[in-house]
Amino acid sequence: MIKSESINELATALSIAQGKIENAKKDTSNPFFKSKYADLSSVISVIKEPLHSNGLSIIQTTEVIGETLFLVTTLLHKSGQYISAQLPVLAKDNSAQAMGSAITY
Q: Measured on CA atoms in the order 41, 15, 53, 78, is the torsion positive or negative?
């Protein structure tokens, strides 16, 4: 985890936003597992306003550390405070298609 020196304003804003975020609707079907799930659009629709109204945003980037590609997710606050986490991208090979598939899955 990487974070700004202080995250007090970010933490306060996130706490308020989380109190306003409702559950995303499970409105998409997965026929393979015979189940329903909330797709990305449903998730974004319930978090967009609470995050925005509290000065929060989320970005995702990639970073190569050594020989490993990482997906980096960062939560930003309008004050400049941030917190981020890295997740290794495990692709079946080093082709652009395999990397793109691993990043977006």
A: negative
Q: What percent of the chain has pLDDT over 70?
A: 100
Cα separation, 79 vs 98, in Å, equals: 37
Write down the pLDDT at residue 4.
Answer: 98
**Helix ranges (DSSP H) in the chain:** 8-20, 40-53, 96-104
Q: Using one digit for the tens of pLDDT, what is the confidence trace for 51-62?
A: 999 999 999 999
CA distance 84 to 15: 17
Token pair in block for residue 84: 């981020």
Confidence of residue 16 (pLDDT cuts 50, 70, 90): very high
∠ CA 54-44-37, rounded to 5°: 140
Say how far apart CA 93 and CA 99 lie, in whole Å. Answer: 7
The first and second tokens of residue 40, run together, are: 């990305």
